[in-house]
Amino acid sequence: MTVDAHKETLGFQTEVRQLLDLMIHSLYSNKEIFLRELVSNAADAADKLRFEALGDDALYEGDGELRIRVAFDKEARTVSVTDNGIGMSRQEVQEHLGTIARSGTREFVSQLTGDQAKDSRLIGQFGVGFYSSFIVADKVTVETRRAGLGVEHGVRWISEGQGEYTLETVERVARGTTVTLHLREGEDEFLEPFRLKSIITRYSDHIPLPIEMLGEPQGEGDDAKPAEWETVNRASALWMRAKNEISDEEYAAFYKHVAHDFEDPLLHMHNRVEGKHEYSSLLYVPKRAPFDLWDRDRRQGIKLYVRRVFIMDDAEHLMPGYLRFVRGVIDSDDLPLNVSREILQHNRVIDAIRGASVKRVLGRLETLAKDEPETYAEFWTAFGKVLKEGPGEDHENRERIARLLRFASTSGEGDAETVSLEDYVGRMGEDQEKIYYVTADTFAAAANSPHLELFRKKGIEVLLMHDRIDEWLVGMLPEFDGKQLQSVSQGEVEGLDEEAEKRVEQAKEEQGELVSRVKTALGDRVEEVRFTARLTDSPACLVAKEAGMSAHLGRLLKAAGQEVPDVPLTLELNPDHKLVARLEGETDEGRFGEWSELLYEQALLSEGGQLADPAGFVRRMNGLLLELAG
Ligand code: ADP
Ligand code: MG
User: Measuring from atom 19 of ligand 1, which residue has the nearest CA?
Assistant: First the structure.
């Protein structure tokens, strides 16, 4: 048979080049991980073949015993990893080993700084993969043949990791893939069987597939028996083993394989469920958010198995969006092997497994929050923003999720998000009925909001919310523990400060004219002008209607490109403020207008709003300052 070799030289995608370069330098101190990555890919390839063969037995080509072989050649100074998994077609080789298909790569690479410590952490989150071969090799050869294609469809890929690779068609009898590393000068340790074996057991013991190495030949002379392939790993599915027989190191090693992560997980949950539905689950929460946590096209974290057969990655139906950071494996005894993504959407077994898994994760996070608050804080920093999607997405578990939320507050320390709703409620005074919060674009804007003045004076705690998602969250969480969540910048304040309220009543009677003069000066830009008990230090502030949309939400929606009608806010005046008194004494209507304008503008600014006429504001301001300067 002749093969048209069709040899070509191709360039790596720019991102691959940058990544290759950084990887070699920043991961050098951990270079042995290349073997874990190659074995992991070989195991994935076996999973894929098993799955495709469910529909087409012929793909096995009579060889259904899937395994991985690790070999070395001291003279040639090579190490190779061979699998009889799915293999790759020419096009697949080009796609998978020449580009990085995962979305978000560009942003990822742009985050790299050249600072080794920082970059290696980022690369860890990204998952290093195949390209890690170049940490120890100055040339890598891949020979592969896709299951189902004839022997003339073999492909050889060669690269020195310098920006380009060659691709040619070759004959290859064996289905699957061989990756051969030509070791760099000084990397001879990887030619020692003992060293290779120990790396395999360290990182890949849990791979549910035999990993074999060639043993020593037995006997001598005529009795000599050729060396045989020996399995060096445990080769059983980790999630099927008893919990008490699995060490933390084994859990962590398996996590790195399923999650394509470089770091240990934050925690794991391992369960065998029997009864109506039977399944095993091994779920993990990572330490750090993956770089593509906010990427809509990102892969989800759970691998679905049916009776030990891998069915699919990224089974998004197994975890709701607000728990999308959870990684791991679910292995069902009840689902049919030919289950498809479409079937998964409306499947009673899946719904039951998912419901129970969600409860398990929430339960585990609850214990963590209670028993290990410091670790929980780490979790919150990484995934708090995602968890905040929960109350809107999962009504059934709303109260439980709400208990897991953490906020900054006027009783907390700085901008640290450490206050739970339970803490807040526990600290509420006897006559306090509501949970108060303020939302703003930044922590500083929230913490310094004039709307807090009365609450500060009365020693009432206010939650300081400054995440984009908080506005939405409070919309989805009208109450907690029977207590209503109340924005301090919406509606009127009542029943908090009797004395100040009396003063407001008095001002209404005695200074009622002032209010209508200001309203006339400002026109339609304000809904209403009134006196308030809310302020102690500031002369004025703006508030939204109780039932209406908050000004902050209006701005967020606008920024997101939505049509939002301009709803005028109410201007509230502090009856005890000197500037307000000064305003009242102004008889020149023109100057009265300027003063009113200025009060409105500063209230708008401190509330986080934007001035329609910033230059006009500056002019007014300077006019008054000049007056002061005399
Ligand atoms: P990842 O495993 O995270 O997808 P890698 O860089 O490790 O990233 O591998 C890139 C891709 O190359 C894999 O997704 C797979 O499609 C392909 N690949 C790598 N090794 C093999 C192999 N031994 N058999 C089949 N495909 C492979
Ligand atoms: Mg990989």
Answer: 41
